[in-house]
Design a protein that fits this description.
The chain is of the alpha+beta class. The chain has helices at about 15-30, 35-40, 95-110, 125-130, 145-160, 195-200, 220-230; strands spanning about 5-10, 30, 45-55, 55-65, 70, 75, 75-85, 115-120, 170-175, 175-180, 210-220.
Length: about 230
């Protein structure tokens, strides 16, 4: 399907609540999730991105924003949360473009505060999408996580994932899973080093109905030009 006319809109939680049934219709196609649980999660996010084909919502993305003190320095944690794009509209970097659009808004508000992007993923698909354009990321297999990033990961895990967070593996559990079997990597996909990295960090991702995911973080400044070039000059 051609999706060159797909539009991205950044909206507030108040506006999303007016459209939540349309967004739920997309969510229910991808996730094995209770509708009440979906509505209950909306309050933890700062803003949302909606993907439109005309007037039809075909995907969504949720954003966290936190400003904790880490090593006595105030930083901005930009979290990319719960979201998806319907299968027919994938493979066009719309999620990455939504992230960049929101990131530019953050820079305009406070251009001098360091920004760190983080996510929590249960599948190799979303991990690969984010990590493909990132030269520096934590955690990484066979590399010790620096103390600074360890503090960031623990802050995120303890704030948003409560009792399910494992500070050793930087993983946490949620109350839903991805329905589609493509969430389980194929033998061919496992040859991709990024996919192999993810599986080594989240072994349960090889099983159906996986509900555990990896929390990861990367700095924006060392990655920014690399990411921008890959997205817009590839």
């Amino acid at each position: 399907m051609k999706n060159n006319k797909l539009k991205i809109k950044i909206i507030t939680p108040e506006k999303l609540y007016l459209l939540k049934e349309q967004v739920w219709n997309v969510c229910a196609q991808i996730y094995d999730m209770d509708e009440d649980a979906y509505y209950g999660r909306l309050s933890i996010f700062k803003d949302f991105a909606l993907f439109y084909d005309g007037d039809k919502i075909v995907g969504f993305l949720s954003f966290f924003i936190d400003e904790p003190l880490i090593n006595k320095k105030k930083i901005c944690l930009f979290g990319v949360g719960h979201g998806t794009v319907l299968q027919a509209y994938r493979n066009s970097a719309w999620v990455q473009k939504a992230i960049l659009k929101y990131y530019v808004q953050l820079l305009r508000k406070n251009p001098f505060r360091p920004v760190y992007i983080w996510g929590m993923t249960m599948t190799h698909l979303s991990f690969r999408m984010g990590m493909r354009y990132s030269k520096y990321r934590y955690p990484a297999p066979e590399i010790a996580t620096p103390v600074f990033y360890e503090k960031i990961l623990n802050y995120i895990g303890e704030k948003y994932y409560d009792d399910s967070y494992n500070a050793v593996t930087y993983t946490a559990a949620v109350k839903f899973s991805v329905k589609d079997q493509v969430a389980i990597p194929s033998e061919e996909e496992l040859k991709d080093p990024i996919v192999a990295d993810f599986v080594s960090l989240v072994p349960s991702s090889l099983l159906p109905d996986n509900r555990r995911g990896l929390i990861y973080v990367f700095p924006t400044l060392p990655n920014y030009w690399f990411w921008f070039r890959k997205l817009f000059f590839r």
